[in-house]
Design brief:
- It is a single chain.
- The protein is built from nine helices and 14 strands.
- It is of the alpha/beta class.
- The protein folds into two domains: 6-124, 3-Layer(aba) Sandwich (Rossmann fold), CATH 3.40.50; 149-314, Dihydrodipicolinate Reductase, domain 2 (2-Layer Sandwich), CATH 3.30.360.10.
- A seven-stranded parallel sheet has the order 3-2-1-4-5-7-6, sandwiched between helices.
- The structure holds NADPH dihydro-nicotinamide-adenine-dinucleotide phosphate and N-acetyl-L-glutamyl 5-phosphate.
């Protein structure tokens, strides 16, 4: 039973994921937003930065992590920055949900190799993908919220790895521009990204080892990953390509049915994963603004290539919505509290 309002703080509240945390949490019946921090906008009302969120009478504050006397802190800060503040916040007794990559890796050498920096404060954390770690999240002090690409990729491929159906998977993802955060970069300049598709980090994106870490827990699957920037504001559409170990060209329809049933079984009790049937193919604008992930496709071509598609909103299921799902689990709230809304379409 919930006895009192849960007090929360958002560190890095001026960023895109910070704005989404405020937008969603403001409607949460058991949560009181006590602090929203920003170094750049200290003493500025939040609507100056997030003009979609009005009348909350909240101002950004530039606070020391030790001053955050709340129950739960969301650190919506870049990797490298989170590791400098998370240990101090944990010392206050607050639970921490970190949205950066700093605590997602079980192996520090992998983190240091792919993020190109030393980890100054390794800590035990639970990987915050509720579809895999629900029970561990409920007991966690520190949750490492998954990366946006890994969320879509892992959901689209997990049953294949669990059943050892494929040896290699190619994850091809298209991402909206908000994935890059508020800091301008050349690719995000309007004339560069509009009317364009920009592949990047073809074989070297730091989300590849994260996807590998999680899918590799069940089989010897090898993950390849390439992201593409597409001219949309939010959303990640992922195509998971793989060749079935068990493939022979007979009876493709019954193999497709088997796979669909496998995914339906995997996600049947999941509040935010919808497995689309009858050949329906996920699209971005069906999930935009929502915490839902859609999975569909389940086609097999004549060469035995299996194609599964997932769609998520990078800022919601890929970041802030998933972080709030994790908070709901930690605090014993209804899992979908404040997260029930469907996507915005068109
Ligand atoms: N955008 C996305 O789709 C996703 C983002 N993430 C991750 O979530 C985190 C936040 O992302 P996002 O909101 O997009 O990022 P933004 O760049 O939009 O915002 C991050 C905020 O953190 C603050 N900040 C920056 N550097 C530091 C620092 N050294 N110390 C303290 N605060 C700092 C800034 O606020 P100020 O300068 O005002 O203090 C900034 O507004 C990142 O780790 C990102 O990789 C994860 C999944 C998806
Ligand atoms: C479009 C764009 O630049 N996307 C970012 C998404 C990364 C992100 O948000 O990083 P974490 O989830 O690891 O924190 C990128 O590819 O680096």
């Amino acid at each position: 039973m919930v006895l009192k309002m849960t007090e929360i703080a958002i560190v890095g509240g001026s960023g895109y994921t910070g704005g989404e945390l405020i937008r969603i949490l403001e409607k949460h019946p058991h949560v009181d937003i006590k602090y929203i921090t920003s170094r750049k906008y200290a003493d500025v009302p939040i609507e100056k930065v997030h003009p979609n969120i009005r009348d909350l009478n909240l101002i950004f504050q530039d606070l020391n992590p030790k001053e955050l006397d709340v129950d739960v802190v969301f650190t919506a800060t870049p990797h490298g920055a989170s590791m400098k503040i998370v240990p101090e916040i944990l010392e206050t007794g607050a639970k921490v949900i970190d949205l950066s990559g700093d605590y997602r890796f079980k192996d520090m050498a992998t983190y240091e190799k792919w993020y190109g920096m030393d980890h100054i404060a390794p800590l035990k954390a639970v990987y915050g993908l509720p579809e895999i770690y629900r029970e561990d999240i409920k007991k966690a002090d520190l949750v490492a919220n998954p990366g946006c690409f890994p969320t879509g990729a892992i959901l689209a491929t997990l049953p294949l790895s669990k059943e050892k159906l494929v040896d290699n998977v190619i994850i091809d993802s298209k991402t909206g521009i908000s994935g890059g955060g508020v800091t301008p970069a050349e690719n995000f300049h309007f004339p560069n990204c509009s009317d364009n598709v920009i592949p990047y980090n073809l074989t070297s994106h730091r989300h590849m080892p994260e996807i590998q870490q999680e899918l590799g827990l069940y089989s010897k699957i090898k993950v390849s990953f390439t992201p593409h920037l597409v001219p949309v504001i939010r959303g990640i559409l992922t195509t998971s390509h793989s060749f079935l170990n068990i493939y022979d060209s007979s009876d493709i329809e019954s193999k497709k049915e088997y796979l669909l049933n496998l995914y339906k079984k995997q996600y049947k009790n999941e509040p935010f994963v919808k497995v689309l049937e009858n050949g329906e193919i996920p699209t971005l604008n069906a999930v935009r603004g929502s915490n839902f992930g859609h999975i569909g496709g389940f086609e097999i071509d004549e060469n035995g290539r299996l194609v599964i598609i997932s769609a998520i909103d990078n800022l919601v299921k890929g970041a802030s919505g998933q972080a709030i799902h994790n908070m709901n689990l930690i605090c014993g709230f209804k899992e979908n509290e404040a997260l029930e809304s469907y996507g915005m379409r068109p």
